[in-house]
Design goal:
It contains six helices and twelve strands. It has a two-stranded antiparallel ribbon. It has helices at 20-30, 46-54, 71-78, 95-105, 121-134, 162-175, and strands spanning 5-7, 14-16, 31-33, 40-42, 56-58, 65-67, 83-85, 92-94, 109-111, 118-120, 150-152, 159-161. The longest helix has 14 residues, at 121-134. Among the domains are: 5-53, no CATH class; 55-105, Herpes Virus-1 (2-Layer Sandwich). Strand 7 and strand 8 form a beta hairpin. By secondary structure, the protein is of the alpha+beta class. The chain is elongated. InterPro entries: Innate_Immune_Apopt_Reg, TRAFD1-XIAF1_Znf, Znf_RING/FYVE/PHD. Residues 92-131 form the TRAFD1/XAF1 zinc finger domain.
Length: 176
């Protein structure tokens, strides 16, 4: 059958059975297996392959030595000194500093446009999902007031809205 194929043990390619003997003889004569990576390499290109793939190089940023072919993966996924951006402010920094930076950066607050509350940046996305369904939306043309915090009055020991505290203190001060 013309559709039958075999896998060459030297180059790991699928070859039609009709051409397999000739192909295998060619591979046996011209290919060698790299002792470092086990890949079949043309004998004439072995020195170039070793130079491009297996030569030890030093990464300038972190001063680590590694084989050249591993450098790209190290630089993009493994190196603690690779550059990443903060998810809050997009500042570029070393990966090793990202967690601490994002903790502090995410502790900043931003005004939620839906409920007018100040929310931590790291909680803003989940807040917006919960906030939109729970908050009463103002009618068209109606303004929504900001939530008011409360403060403890030392004179009467009651919790007073911050925006009414100054007015609350006036009668107490006059009677003293």
């Amino acid at each position: 059958m013309e559709g039958d194929v075999k896998v060459c043990e030297y180059c790991k390619r699928s070859v039609a059975c009709a051409h397999f003997a000739l192909h295998e003889a060619h591979c046996l004569r011209f290919l060698v297996i790299c002792p470092e990576c086990g890949e079949p390499i043309p004998e004439s290109k072995m020195e170039e392959h070793f130079e491009n793939s297996h030569k030890e190089v030093e990464r300038a940023k972190c001063r680590q030595n590694m084989q050249k072919h591993l450098l790209e993966v190290h630089e993009t996924k493994e190196c603690q000194m690779r550059q990443v951006k903060c998810k809050f402010c997009e500042l570029a920094m070393d990966f090793s500093k990202q967690e601490i930076h994002e903790y502090h950066c995410g502790s900043r607050t931003e005004l939620c446009p839906d409920c007018n509350q100040y929310i931590l940046l790291r909680e803003l996305a989940s807040h917006k999902d919960a906030c939109q369904g729970e908050q009463a939306q103002p009618s068209k043309g109606e303004r929504m007031s900001a939530p008011v915090g409360k403060i403890n009055c030392n004179s009467c020991n009651q919790m007073i809205p911050i925006n009414k505290y100054a007015h609350h203190m006036v009668p107490i001060t006059k009677s003293s």
